[in-house]
What does this fold into?
Amino acid sequence: MAEAAHGHLCAGQILGVRMALLGLERLGIGDPRGADRKRLITFVEIDRCATDAIGLVTGCRLGKRTLKFRDWGKMAATFADLESGLAVRIVALEDSRELARRLYPHMESANQQQMAAYRELGNQQLFREQWVRVDLGAAELPGYKADRLVCPRCGEGVNFGRFVQTGEQRLCLSCARPELRYWEPADGQ
It folds into this structure.
């Protein structure tokens, strides 16, 4: 299922599936897509293959406001149970790649080595687990509603209080802090 949703099977997919299953197990969430579907919020820290697998296994989605992306470039995810207040952060261990090379030197590609190892290694060989506190304010929760405004500078709508008060104006983030934008207007526009 992860392969079909992502488009190919790779080591990151296997790692993401294992990471998500471990997070669900630690929190005691048995049916994240059914009876337990409103209990879980997941924070992912990388925009790679594992993230697709984590979303698929947990049922968490950006559009449902249950999957949160923090671009920290780490193969890590935090699983937060809204019902119990518990949260566990799971990080893939760097030395698991080297372990895969040692276990499967006869396989020609690192991806094949890692796929084989990530299927077979124990959780303690793949991950570091840490119980953490996650402060989930109202704005982080599914179903949250807040004022919507139109930025007076660009005319674009802004949801959930994601604006900056600058003097007398409330500006969208890209107008208030253009140095943080991921885009720039093309010449002549």
Notes: The mean pLDDT is 88. The first helix runs from residue 2 to 6. The two ends are 44 Å apart (CA to CA). The longest strand covers residues 76-81.
